[in-house]
Task: inverse folding
């Protein structure tokens, strides 16, 4: 049985929630005065040691809803070697890194040890940290099980388990891993479980692993934020038509466009659009699943810091990323899965700000558009007339100049290089890690038998320990296993895009601390 709280307790202050003075002081320093509904609903129960089922999207403050009570509860007690005291499971490396940032921010008045077990980071470093004992372990499921199978990790000391973005875990095929991990952790643990939606598989999981959870639902999963102005924009179906439409929209927004994320359905489009935007002198970056961890973090850092105005991304690469003040979202393609629309446009209009989204629609998108309008329960307005007012395709733009249909190799186009050069900055050090090429420029086949592949990977990794040439490949593979091998989204289409080839712009090579 679960206690139902559909909450709007925003009259509360953080001081009313029962958090420790050290945590309260860090929250004040972060500039937060009022708990969000998910925080007001979850924190008091989490502090009492109850299981929590939080139905909330990113952007609602759900990370602090579990991080703040965890820190308060961790103030007492000490970590033992190889036995983390708490475990947080995240579907992607970026989300895991974001949660770590939250622990740094809110835990600054305490001496907590936080370790991140994610693909793309060396096993050795991670093992050393585990050996010293960690209070908080943040992991993607695949990497966690790899460490467990290597015998470097004991989960019997975990008192608090957090499963975040559970529906995303389902999309990525991580549920069997989650079930396995749940069984490795003592039954007496506290479980804090978060999901934006509750499909039947997730409900089953909560019934299996949560004990009398307090249920907190802060918004309907399919709802879109009313502070976002949504518009549909008609366009010809050819890629050059759509690129032309996008450029016109961006230019028409002028100064109102502070920064934007542009979503494409497939990574080949991410790559093509990115190059096209550079060619047209836009400050653009790109984010897709074939990029290695460092390149992605560098790209995000640049976008967050305002050094890049436009970020072209795929759904998998951008899911759950916390970029607080994006003014615009453009859907270069209508998403195939209606719920992706909600997630995409949810990148703007966050934390009380207003935002704008434009979705480029062609004649063949009717089915997917219908599904979106059904899911959100609202008709989206057209920007300047619907598809019936669309002129026949002009098919002009860049196509005739570059030989339409010919594959456009990264870096063989002088104007794209010009764009790249423009973005090179004097302070940028070109310190591409040794395995960047491997990670960014290779296509990884789907791994049909995950269990066998993990075993094989561990076997070969053990065999190759200390061997420099074997390791980067192993870790590149691991990166993708963590996020991609099960994805039903664009990233497993293997459509032939292999990163940016020779065209990796300098800002993607900035060394970042991972
Ligand atoms: P999340 O849903 O955890 O991704 O958080 C979304 C954003 O809201 C993050 O940038 C947080 O730093 C911010 N945030 C979290 N809690 C609050 C709060 N109580 N008041 C204002 N902003 C918050």
Result:
């Amino acid at each position: 049985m679960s206690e139902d709280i559909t909450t709007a307790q925003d009259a509360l202050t953080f001081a009313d929630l029962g958090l420790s003075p050290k945590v309260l002081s860090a929250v004040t320093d972060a500039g937060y005065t009022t708990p969000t509904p998910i925080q007001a609903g979850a924190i008091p129960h989490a502090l009492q040691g109850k299981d929590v089922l939080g139905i909330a999207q990113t952007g609602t403050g759900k990370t602090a809803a579990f991080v703040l009570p965890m820190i308060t509860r961790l103030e007492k007690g000490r970590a033992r070697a190889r036995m983390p005291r708490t475990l947080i499971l995240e579907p992607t490396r970026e989300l895991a890194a974001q949660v770590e940032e939250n622990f740094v921010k809110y835990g600054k008045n305490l001496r907590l040890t936080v370790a991140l077990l994610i693909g793309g980071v060396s096993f050795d470093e991670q093992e050393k940290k585990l050996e010293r004992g960690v209070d908080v372990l943040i992991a993607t499921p695949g990497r966690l099980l790899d460490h467990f199978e290597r015998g470097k990790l004991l989960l019997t000391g975990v008192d608090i388990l957090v499963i975040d973005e559970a529906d995303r875990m389902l999309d990525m095929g991580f549920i069997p891993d989650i079930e396995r991990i749940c069984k490795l952790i003592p039954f007496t643990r506290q479980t804090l479980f978060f999901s934006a939606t509750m499909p039947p598989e997730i409900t089953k999981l909560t019934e299996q692993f949560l004990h009398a959870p307090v249920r907190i639902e802060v918004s309907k999963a399919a709802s879109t934020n009313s502070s976002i102005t949504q518009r549909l924009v008609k366009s010809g179906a050819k890629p050059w038509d759509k690129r032309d439409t996008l450029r016109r929209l961006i230019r028409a927004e002028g100064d109102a466009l502070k920064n934007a994320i542009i979503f494409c359905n497939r990574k080949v489009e991410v790559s093509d659009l990115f190059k096209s935007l550079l060619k047209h002198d836009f400050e653009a970056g790109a984010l897709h699943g074939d990029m290695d961890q460092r390149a992605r973090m560098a790209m995000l850092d640049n976008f967050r810091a305002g050094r890049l105005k436009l970020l072209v991304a795929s759904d998998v690469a951008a899911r759950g990323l916390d970029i607080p003040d994006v003014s615009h979202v453009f859907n270069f393609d209508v998403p195939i899965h209606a719920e992706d629309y909600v997630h995409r446009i949810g990148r703007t209009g966050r934390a009380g700000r207003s935002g704008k989204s434009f979705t480029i629609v062609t004649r063949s998108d009717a089915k997917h558009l219908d599904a979106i309008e059904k899911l959100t329960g609202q008709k989206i307005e057209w920007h300047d007339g619907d598809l019936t007012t669309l002129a026949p395709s002009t098919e002009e733009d860049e196509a005739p100049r570059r030989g339409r249909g010919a594959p456009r190799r990264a870096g063989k186009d002088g104007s794209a290089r010009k764009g790249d050069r423009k973005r090179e900055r004097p302070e940028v050090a070109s310190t591409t890690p040794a395995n960047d090429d491997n990670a960014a420029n290779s296509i990884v086949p789907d791994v049909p038998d995950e269990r066998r592949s993990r075993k094989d990977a561990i076997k070969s990794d053990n065999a190759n320990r200390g061997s420099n040439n074997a390791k980067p490949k192993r870790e590149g593979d691991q990166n993708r296993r963590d996020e991609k091998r099960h994805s039903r989204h664009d990233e497993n289409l293997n459509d032939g895009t292999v990163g940016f080839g020779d065209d990796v712009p300098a800002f993607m090579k900035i060394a970042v601390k991972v």
